[in-house]
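Entry 14: structure prediction run for Reverse transcriptase Ty1/copia-type domain-containing protein. Input pasted below.
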Amino acid sequence: MILLVVYVDDIVIIGSNISGISDLKIFLNSQFQTKDLGPLKYFLGIEVLRSKKGILLYQRKYILDLLNETGKLGAAPSTIPMISNPFLDLNDSMFAELPDDLKKKIDPEKLKPFASPKRYRRLSGKLNYLTVTRPDITFSVSVLSQFMEAPTVAQWEALEHILHYLKDSLGRGILYTDYGHTKVECFCDADHAGSKATRRSTTEIGIITTLPTKLWCDNKAALHVASNSVFHERTKHIEIDCHFICDKIKENVISTGHVRSNDQLANLLTKALNGTRVDYLCNKLGMINIYAPT
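Run finished. Output tokens:
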């Protein structure tokens, strides 16, 4: 298989068939003028580094440009992408309706509208693109992207805090290693069915897996329900498609397994974690920081 990735006039050719890639480049050059830049090193803000361990995708230059653009090159680094704040979704119009005991815990100045929503949206969009190689900021960006219409001062400060976190981990990226197989493993958030809105993949690139996809879950009750054909119809975790998981297990499409909550990779994408937990889960996810001190 050879994959052709095209963005305007930039083309990346990916595949294991070296002779096929060479023939394709000759064909493309016969149809229009092209310039062969050699092995992929940089594409649309994504840097590619090869080693004996595998291929690392990271966006150090993109982050530095973003820090420079926002005046954060000299910012103090932070080890956590998002500081937990239960009042983050509040605004000044809600403050008057809060109980007095809660009002004492909140700075009303932080709930005022941010002066430049356009600036907020621009930074949010740039950070969203960065999640391509930085899944460790996915949760923070996802939460803060919900307030782009009328952000508050507190929400802007939370968005800026992500820049402080990135300053601390400029060289972190995703390392793709060759395991010699196409076995897929997934991690399931036990509270998935608590959300009324779901998003599912609708297309694939045609890579065939020879083994059942391993689905790791940190909720034993959900695993028991999935592996038994008799269950309560109102069970939270199977409200969306009651028999779907059971059928896929019987068809040998997936297999399930239990994982401790501390080792649940999905938590990195669904919760605001402290620095130690972020680093631990990033390592388990296959992320490395090539500029980290050894």
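Notes: Residues 192-205 have pLDDT under 50 and may be disordered. Will compare against the previous run tomorrow.
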